[in-house]
Amino acid sequence: MGIPTVKREKQHYLINTLHSLLYEFSEEQKNDCVIIIFIAEVTSLHSFPREIQSGVLEVISPPASYYPDLSNLKQTFGDSEDRVRWRTKQNLDYSFLMLYAQPKGTLYLQLEDDIIAKPDYIQRIKNFAAEQSQEWMILEFSQLGFIGKLFKSEDLPLIVEFFLMFYKDKPIDWLIDHLLWVKVCNPEKDAIHCEKEKAKLRIRAKPSLFQHVGTYSSLAGKIQNLKDKDFGKNVLHKAHNNPPAKVDTSLRIYQKYTLEKVYKGKDYLWASAPVAGDYISFTFLNPLKVEKYFFRSGNMEHPGDKLFNTTVEVINVFNSNISLYGPSFIFYLGAFENGIAEGSINQSIGKIQAIRLSVNSDSPVWAILSEVSMLIKEI
Length: 379
Fold this sequence. Notes:
The chain has 379 residues and is an alpha+beta fold. Helix content is 25%, strand content 24%. It folds into 2 domains: 2-212, Spore Coat Polysaccharide Biosynthesis Protein SpsA, Chain A (Alpha-Beta Complex), CATH 3.90.550; 245-376, Sandwich (Jelly Rolls), CATH 2.60.120.
């Protein structure tokens, strides 16, 4: 996957885009995918040290010598000098990124830095590609611009060669359409025949797997409210059949997004920024043997609203006189990492009376709890 990103004047979207792309990423998918970020400001990726170290994320930036002189470009299609320079550099950025990515895998997915993705986008892309019986050049997973375009890596050198021949002349989404015309359209036949032939190489998947969320373009001063109507609604929480429990929290809940709703799988919890000492507790109506736990913070629309420096603790039935709200919870199970806390519970602990999430430091952001799962041991 390739993501070109440049600094915007008013708002940055890259970190939220990466949170969305890595949301529910399985270990198998981490071993199968590489996200390559074409970026100048490397320091902004401190949120993903593990992904960078493991190779899931790569960060690249071309040398200044890669770019030709972009002044005095010919103005075409009524575009301003700034816009012509912006789109010309963008063509060169995409070309560099594609050539770098070409040997990394068999398929290349072109994305942008201001999107959100469906949680299962990787598997759905693989399935759709595997279903194609005819030769294709582009599989489209968004109807907008150059977002969600899948190419075979073996085709990238040809595509980039075409881009570099005409990078000064037209925007990149126009150039890819011209490339298809060159490959399959017969000048002796009409436009309808041409469109039919191009459609054989450019296949659209529905519903869309990526949605554009940015408002401020990388072109200074440009506002763009583009939305993909085929994307549909985001799934912002996930339901599980949890055992009966009394739930409680010290967090300051926002509107209707309560702890009860996320525990019952009806909605997600949303609260203003947690502070040290805040807690979320689940007290079972009857002590239970719990095999596994899973908590997810953040969701697709607000992937950065996660729980940070938050631990998972339990109190078992032998220590039920311990206060739920004091510092003396008896067993430490784990902590949230990149928005998720999960694990198995040692059965020697015995039956569990309560599970608590404890916030250990002030958070700079609001918090969402979008998934709660307690797997009970069958007797």
